[in-house]
Amino acid sequence: MSIVQSVKRNAQIRGRQTATMFGERSRTWLEFRERVARLAGGLNALGVGANDRVAILALNSDRYLEAYVAVPWAGGAVVPLNIRWAEAENAYALNDSEATVLLVDDAFLKQVNALKQQVGSLRAVVHMGDAARPGGLIGHDALIERHPPLRV
Q1: Which residues of the chain have pLDDT under 70?
Q2: Could you tell me the end-to-end alpha-carbon distance of the chain, in angstroms, rounded to an integer?
Q3: What is the pTM of this model?
């Protein structure tokens, strides 16, 4: 069973039960499935498709889990970056994987400009933090709000 199938099945069986909790945010399995499907649609709109690599540089959160499921839902492969790596190590991993999209939270915003300059394959950077979205980055929640759910 894939992670996508697991989320769909949990939404069927446990739809109104809590799926994620992070800080003040709490979402049911139905809400989680809808957000993941919409995020997958947003990733598709950014060009993510079969076998594209999407990197995540973030601390654990509900948004990290949404991204972790949405990437394969969109047809891509997740590249989780090590939060203890230095900027040069992250750049190496991004180049080696040929990641086309980077999802980053507030803790790692300082690395974004340098990574964008060092990684030629990056087409988009998505901010998945709680702070105000920096200019030039796409908002995680904006992708969810602006795109229809991807049905697979």
Answers
A1: 1
A2: 14
A3: 0.96
